[in-house]
Every structure is written in C-alpha cells, then in structure tokens.
Amino acid sequence: MSAPAVRRPEPKRPEPAAELSATERRAEKARGRIGVGLIVPGFVYLLLFFAAPVFVLLAMSLYAKPPGAETGVFVPAFEISNYAVALSQYWEPLVRSFLFAGIATVLALLIGYTMAYLVAVRLRQHKLLASILLVILIAPFFSSFVLRTQAWKQILADEGFVVEALRFVAILPEDGRLTATSIAVVAGLTYNFLPFMTLPIYASLERLDTRLLEAAGDLYASPMTAFRRVTLPLSMPGVFAGTLLTFIPASGDYINAAILGNNRDTSMIGQVIDSRFFQIVDYPMAAALSTVLMVVILILVMLYIRKFGTKELF
Amino acid sequence: MGLKQRMGRWLVPVIGGLAFVYLLVPIAYIFVFSFNDAARTNLTWQGFTLANWKNPCGAPNICDALGNSLSVAFVATIIATVLGTAIALGLARYKFRFRKLADILIILPLATPEVVLGASLLAQFLNLGWELGYWTVVLSHVTFCMAFVVVTVRARVSALDGRLEEAAGDLYASPRTTFWKVTFPLLLPGVVAAALLSFAMSFDDFIIANFNSGSFDTFPKFIYVAATRGIPAQANVIGSGIFLIALAIVVIGTVVSYRRQKALAAR
Amino acid sequence: MSTEATTTAATDQQDGGAVVPGASGGADLVIEHVSKRFAAFTAVDDLSLTIPSGSFFALLGPSGCGKSTTLRMVAGLEQPSEGRLRIGDEDVTDLPSHRRPVNTVFQSYALFPHMSVLDNVAFGLKQRKVRDAVARAKEALELVELGHLAGRRPAQLSGGQQQRVALARAVVNKPQVLLLDEPLGALDMKLRRQMQVELKQIQTELGLTFVHVTHDQEEAMTMADVVAVMNEGRIEQMGAPRELYELPRTAFVANFLGKSNLMHGTVVGREGDYLLVEAAGGVQRLRTDRAVAHDGAVVLGVRPEKMRIFTSGEETVPAGHNRLDGTIIDASFTGVSTEYLVDVPGVGTVGTFTQNMGQATGRAGDPAVMCWDPDFTFGLAGDDDVAAGAAERDA
Q1: Each residue of A196-213: pLDDT tens digit?
Q2: Is residue C128 domain-shared with residue C255, that is, in the same domain?
Q3: Claim to verify: residue C10 and residue C149 sit in the same structural domain
Q4: What backbone torsions phi and psi does residue B5 show, to the nearest 5 degrees?
Q5: From A208's CA, which of A24, A242, B193, C334 has a CA 20 to 30 Å away?
C-alpha cells in the first residue's frame, strides 16, 4: 500500500467576528489569559534587566561632574554637551568600529557563503562529509573566543612562521608585521564572527530545492545565471540574518582590537567605553559613547531592514 | 566545457575547503600548545610534555575561574530557558494587545552590541547600589541568553502542527495533558538546542561579564587578563578539553541520527 | 478484515469511560440554529440538523461552504456564534473538546509523530483511564489490519496506513459520534475506493454515528445513508443519495451532485399529473410532484443518462417523450460510450451520451434529436441560476 501523502496547505484560521457569543468569548478569554501568563515573567525580567538598564544608561549619559568632585562622583543633570565631547574626542574609534565591522562583514559573507554553499548544495548527496563539515562549522563555538583570538596573535606574531614565510616571499617587507595592525584586527573579527554568518546562510540554502536549479538550466540559464537568479534570491533570508548577526556584535567588539591591535590606530569604540568605565571612571562619557553606538547601529539596521528586509527579522 | 565553467566547478570546493582549514587553525594551535613544555609564557614551542594535561589546575586560580563560568552558565541557562520558552509559546500561539511591542522588546537585546548591554546593566547595578559579583553576572547573562532562546524555540513552535493539539483535545486530553504529552515533547529538541546555545554563549562571554563581574573571575576573563603577561598552557588544556568533550557529544549525536536515518531508509 | 476482532470490539461496552456518558453505539446529534460568523464572512448560517443515531451521514459541499466549520463546532474545536449542539440528551455547546463524546479523523490525520502507532491508538483510552487500554488499542489496530506495525512511528507508514491508524485511533474510543474530515482526501484514487468500502464496513459493524465531511460527491453517495449538500453556510438539500440525485430541488444540487441539463421554461398548462412547460421551442412535460414551482417561470432539468440521442434521422421519438432538437458540437468516443455536446437553440449546450452498442456515432455538425421519458424531468424555481454549482463540482 503506498500513496503520496499530499499535504494540503492548512487554511488560515479566520479571525472571529467582532461580536462574540458567550461561548466564543469564554474560549478566547481563556486563551488570552494563558498567553499573557506565559509571557509575563519573561517580560518583567526584560523590563528590569534590559529596558530599565538602557534607560539608566541614557540618563547617566547626561550626568554632570560637579566642580571639584572626586573621581567617579557624578550628579543627575541634563548635560547634552557630553555628547558633543564624546563625538569630537572619539569620532575616530567610532568610525573605525563601523568600518572594521563593515569590512569584516563583507569578508565573512564571501567566505561564509562559499562554505555554506559547499556544504548545503554541492555536498548534499554526501551526507557524511556534509555532517563532518557542519561540525567543523560550529566547532569554534566549542572553544573560547578569547583563547582563539590569543592563538591568532601568537600565530601571526613577528617571530612566528606565518610572518617569516610572508617575509621570505617578499609579500611583507623585512620589518613588516601582521600583529598590531588593522589587517590583524579585521582578520580577527572576520574569523570570530564567521560562524554567525555561515550558519543562517546554511540554514536557508539547505532548504533550497535543487530541482529549481535543474529547471533553470532546462530554461537555458547558465550555472552562473541560475545561481544569480535562483539560488541567491532564495538564500537572501539567511544572508540577511547572517549579516546582522555579524555586523552588530563586530561593531561593539573590542577583544580583537585589544589583543590583535595596537594602542594608536586600531582601537575600536568598545575599548574606549571599557576604559572610560574602568580606568578613567568617567561614567557619563562611557554612557554617552554607548548610547551613540547603540543609536547608530539601530539606524543602520533599520535602514538595512527597510532596503533589504524580509518580514521575519530572524 | 568552457574554462569559466571548469573554474566555477573547482572554485567553490577550493575556497570553501581553505575556509574550513582557516576555521580550524587556531583550534589546532591551542591544542598543540597545550602540550608545550613552557612554564609561564606559552608563546614559543619549548618541547613536548604531558604535564599540563596531568595537572590542568596547575596555574593559579584557573580552575576557580572555570568553576565560576560553569556555574554561571548553568544557572543562567536554566532561568533563560524557562522564561524564554514560555515567551516563545506565548508569542507564537496567543493573541493579545501590545504583541507588536512585545516582539520588539524581545528582538532588541539581539540588536544591542554586548558592550552596550554590558554598560547598561553596569549602569543599572551601580544605580541600584548592588555589589558586582556572581549574581550580577548571572542576571546579565539571562538577559542576552533569553533572546536567543525565544528566537530558537519560537521557530520550533511555529513549525508545530496545531492540529496535533486539537487531535489530543479530541482524544479527551485536557489542555494541561495536551501540553505535557504532545506540545512539550515536540518542542523538546528546540528547547534543548536553545539551552545548549545559551550555555555556550554564557560560558564564552567576556564583554558582558567584564562589565558586571567586579572582582569575580570567569574563565574568559581569566584568559583575557592573563593574555597581557602570557597565558598558561593549562588554559590551552582546559580549552582543548572542553572542545573535545563538546565535539564528542556532537559527533556521537550526528552518527546516531545518521545511522537512524539510514536504518529508516533501508526499511 | 478480521471478524473476530471486530465482534469483540463491537460487543465490548465501554466500562471505564468516566467522561463519556451513555452507552456506545451512537446517539442522535442535534444541531439547532447554529451560526458561525468570522470577521469577514459567515461560515455557517442558521444551520439546523438532526443526525440520527447509527447513521452514516455525509456533509457534502465545495470548499468554503462551511462543512468543515460545522464539523469543528461539533468536535468542540470551534465555538458557535449562535445556536446549540446536543448529543443524545446532553447539551454539549459549552463543553470543551476533551469532554465531548466525539472523536475526529482529521484530514491530515494529525498522528502524534513522537509516539508509536500503538501509543497513538491507545492515547484516548489512556486519557479516559480505561483498563486494558493497550489491549484494546491492539484490537483496533487489528481491525484496520495494521497489527503488525504497532511499534512503528507514523512517519514510517504510507499515506494509506496513516489513514487507517487515524481511523483506529478514533473508533477505538467508541464515540457516540465519529467525525471524519475529508479523511480520504490525501489518498490516490484506487486506495480511496478501497477505503470507502472499508469505512462503510467498519461503520456497519460498530454501529456508530459517522459524520463524514467531503467535497467528493461520488464518495458521499457511495458511503452515506443520508447526504446533506451544503453551500454558502446553508444546507441546500438533504436526503438519501438516490433521492438527491433523482430529484434535486435546486440548481446547485442538480449541478454539484452529478451533471444536469437545465433549461428555462414557462408553465403553459396542466394535463393530469403533468405540467406543460414551454421550453426550447416545444412543450415539455413535467410531473407536478417533481416540480418546485407550479406556474410562471420554471427551470426544467434532466440528467444526461436519462436522455436518448438520435443522429441517423431514422429513429422515431416515442410518443409522449420530451424532445430537444439541436446540432452536435462535439462527439467524443471513450470506448464504453460516446459523449455528445449538442447545441440546442434557446437552451445552450446540452450534454448526453450513448452506450456503445455498435451503432454509428454522430459527428460534429450533424443534426441530433434528444428525447426522454417525462417522468425523469425535474422542475426547479424559475429564478434559480442554471450554472450554480457546476464550477464547484469541477474544481
């Protein structure tokens, strides 16, 4: 006995009419109560430990230092000039953060897409090999972020074999180095956020029906055209999620800049925020910089969503 | 076949393959240098030894930091998974006012860079006058883990066939029984995945913990601080050990499901 | 079919059922003035029905006619906006679905993917804390001839096997009313025929009340004792399949349930038991007791197989028969028969066919004469839409 179990699409549940009978109302009400009951604890938590903190941060960014006060003592105020100072003093690391994060996102997209395509499309028939590569893809999650970044520092160190080799083939000058440069920071960011890019793309490519590519070929599309017109558009949700999951944390990251960069021309905004909080103890400045970072990211993300956005964000 | 097409055929495997090697390089480096016979500064190769593996807690404070991180990750994961799963169910299944707003409140922590989240929570804790330590780290980690749990579990809830619950009700199961016998078992893989993700994120987090831990040490913080004067080889041992354990779990899981699929296909 | 298992199953009265009142074997299902309104439309409009205990009842209609909503309200998965539902003597309108003595075979089967086939079938019994739930579930699986697959997961079964599991999972509870929501929709033609026969057999053996929702008119007619044709939230006509087919009371029923040739006409007189109706350029006869309207404008109808068609010009129309003259538009030879489409002036296209007895077939362009015994004519209201239901049938 065999029959193709054709699944019909389930009809959308229609909205009930505005006027409800007593029975309808009871059922709706019970459902609503359960729904609210489920989300209330988590939302109270988010209000206390996400929404409230963000507001406190906003408020703190406007605090003022009373004249003659000790280090770390501030009073509530409405000191808008904090922002002017923050922007004029720290525009460089701020711009650099977005620049580095942007470059790293593009690089991660190119590399990550290739990896995801290899595993999800090219190796679709080779289940075992594909699963092994998939494990490698998530392997970085099993090891420590800081430790891996430190490892890169040592691999790329001046006396390390990579630098020696590059010097030998004269790609690097005799006194050239890789660590403590912008290249090292961007490479570190690319490396560390690569899985965040690759996994969502993999997820959407894995669902791709390869018969569509055959159909495109049948309709005279070259493999390149088939990729451009069929594969790429269908994987856009993954690309979209991946770029956001890479760009946002990369622009706020400072582990890479701190370990792989130098103190002069590679510092990112995260480092500055960290040092304002803990070394200089200038809370309003740190809070103002955090606010600027958050606002810029939200604006960029919103523009991005408006331009390329799918309805489902993640 | 044209040159262009032949290149296209090879380009993906070659670049993709190199990228996989690239992913593994630092992990392999950490592993190799866990056998380095270097007492303090594990920077250059000094010779092979098993001493580090025999005594992973040899470096001062390293195992305290490890224990702290495991404990924080464990507690934060449990809280985040319970709260996040409930939210995911509530948002995916029920209609109520302010749902749009609720959606945004959930997504925002994901769109917030860690440094901003860390700074905000620090500002809040300073404001409340709470002493930084174990609990402030746990509370901070719950916030960002919960968002990941909601997103992961919600995808699973949306994929769930609502008619299965109707069928359970039709077969005399009360709503409570329906949840525990049908809904929850079907969501479980998603919940477990979310919990594992949460654990990994919390365990590996440096930035948020750095802002909110005070003098309380976590494993990533230990390494970051040690990095300035040389990371002890024991850190490589612990890092590699965790890697190998996680790898073993995933590999066993993959092999089992691969076998099962094959057995199913053979039937 | 294993008779042994079915007899035990049928004689086994439910004893552990705390939730389900009354004896098994079914109870009357009464739907009183039930309506269901959604924001945009009314799915079910003031529906009243009594489905007698032990009958096989089919709700037939095109998609969107409200038949599934009706079923879901009976199951308790949807609440009526108005009206009451009773099973036997009990008003179940306000009972949640898990308290109703009703079970459903879902369209997509809705088998629990994480449970074995046996656990699926035993689920309802276990919820009601019936003793020897597992043994009974096994019996039910034997009844649908799937005893050997009890340990498998639903995903490992074929579509037809899943369908049987869904059926076993519902009937094992011996509900007072068993609801079937397009249960054969996902099966291929051959399997469908086979399952229709088996479903009917199981219903007869267990004596349960079956309410079967379908859009397949043939399925409804083969299986059901009583068919209700639903359209736009209302019941157009209800009755035994043969009665509905032979004497449709609306154009929708005439077209949706099999095919009909319908034509407008005007009553011009009476002759004994017959109305004389002027239509298609002649006077046609219609039995008074087969007409909805008795004067003025009416719609005449006749089923294609009741007509004879003459194409050679040599045959004579029997005395007293109704007659249509036209030109053949299309003649398609199908082996068993030849199907004709004939253009009749003043009526439009009329369809009929002849059994292949070796006679010559007409060709497109040939003149044709069609006739039928006036006792087969049925009369509908003059303002009825002659095209109603035709598109839905073919959809």
Answers
A1: 999 999 988 988 887 888
A2: no
A3: yes
A4: -70, -40
A5: B193
**Which backbone phi and psi does C290 adopt, to 5 degrees?**
-110, 15
B2 located within any domain: no
Judge: C112–B164 Cβ closer than 8 Å, yes or no. Answer: yes
C contacts of B182 (beta carbons < 8 Å): 112
Which of C36, C37, C69, C156 best tests the A interface by mutation, with the highest count of A CBs <10 A?
A: C37
Which residue in this structure is represented by tokens 């905000």? B120
Beta-sheet strand order (sheet of C322-333): C308-310, C367-372, C322-333, C337-344, C348-355
Which chain C residues contact residue A13 at CB under 8 A?
A: none
Q: Are residues B40 and B230 in contact, defined by beta-carbon separation less than 8 angstroms?
A: yes
Same domain, C265 and C361: yes
Could you tell me if A84 and A169 are in contact, meaning their C-beta atoms sit under 8 angstroms apart?
no
Q: Is the pLDDT of residue B183 over 60?
A: yes
Check the CA dihedral C96-C102-C103-C104 and report its sign. Answer: negative
Nearest chain C residue to A17, by CA: C39
Q: What is the pLDDT of residue A309?
A: 61
| Count: domains in chain B | 2
Mutate to test the interface with B, among C77, C119, C173, C182 (most CBs of B within 10 A): C77
Same domain assignment for residues C266 and C238: no
Shared domain for B205 and B75, answered yes or no, is yes
Contacts of C19 in chain B (CB under 8 A): 172
CB contact under 8 A, B167 and C104: yes
Q: Which two tokens stand for residue B202?
A: 């919390």
Domain final residue, candidates C195, C220, C245:
C245
C90: domain range?
A: 3-245
Rounded to the nearest angstrom, the minimum Cα separation between C272 and chain A is 53
pLDDT at C226 over 50: yes
A14 touches chain C (CB under 8 A): yes
CA A164 to chain centre: 34
pLDDT score of A217 more than 90 = no
Q: Where are the alpha helices (DSSP H) in C247-318?
A: 251-256
Domain check: are B179 and B254 in the same one?
no
Same domain flag for B168 and B267: no
In this complex, which of A10, A14, A24 lies closest to C79 when CB atoms are compared? Answer: A24
Q: C235 and C284 share a domain?
A: no
User: At C18, is the pLDDT very low, low, confident or very high (cuts 50, 70, 90)?
Assistant: very low
* A chain contacts of residue B117, beta-carbon cutoff 8 Å: 50, 53
**Statement to judge: residues B104 and B205 lie in one domain:** yes
Are C232 and C259 members of one domain?
no
Q: At what angle do helices B233-266 and B219-227 cross, to 10 degrees?
A: 130
CB distance A115–B19 less than 8 Å? yes
Among residues 142-171 of chain C, which lie with CB inside 8 Å of chain A?
158-162
- Answer whether residue B36 is part of any domain: no
Is there a single domain that holds both residue B73 and residue B107?
A: yes
Q: What CATH class does A81-308 carry? A: mainly alpha
Are B208 and B253 found together in one domain?
no
Domain limits for position B72:
61-218
Determine, for residues B169 and C98 on separate chains, whether the beta-carbon distance falls below 8 Å: yes
- What pLDDT sits at residue A156? 84
The CA distance from B209 to C159, in Å, is: 53
Query: Which CATH number is C375's domain given?
Result: 2.40.50.100
Give the model's pLDDT for residue B5.
67
Query: Is residue B246 assigned to a domain?
Result: yes
Asked if residue A292 has pLDDT above 90, the reply is: yes
Q: Given an 8 Å threshold on Cβ–Cβ distance, is C39 in contact with A24?
A: no
Q: What is the pTM of this model?
A: 0.80
Residues of C numbered 3-42 whose beta carbons fall under 8 angstroms of chain B's beta carbons: which are they? 19
Same domain, yes or no, for C219 and C344? no
Cβ contacts of A19 on chain C, cutoff 8 Å? 37, 81
Same domain, C237 and C290: no
Chain C 294-353, residues with CB within 8 Å of chain B CB atoms: none
Whether the Cβ atoms of residue A65 and residue A74 lie closer than 8 Å to each other = yes
Q: How many domains does chain C have?
A: 2
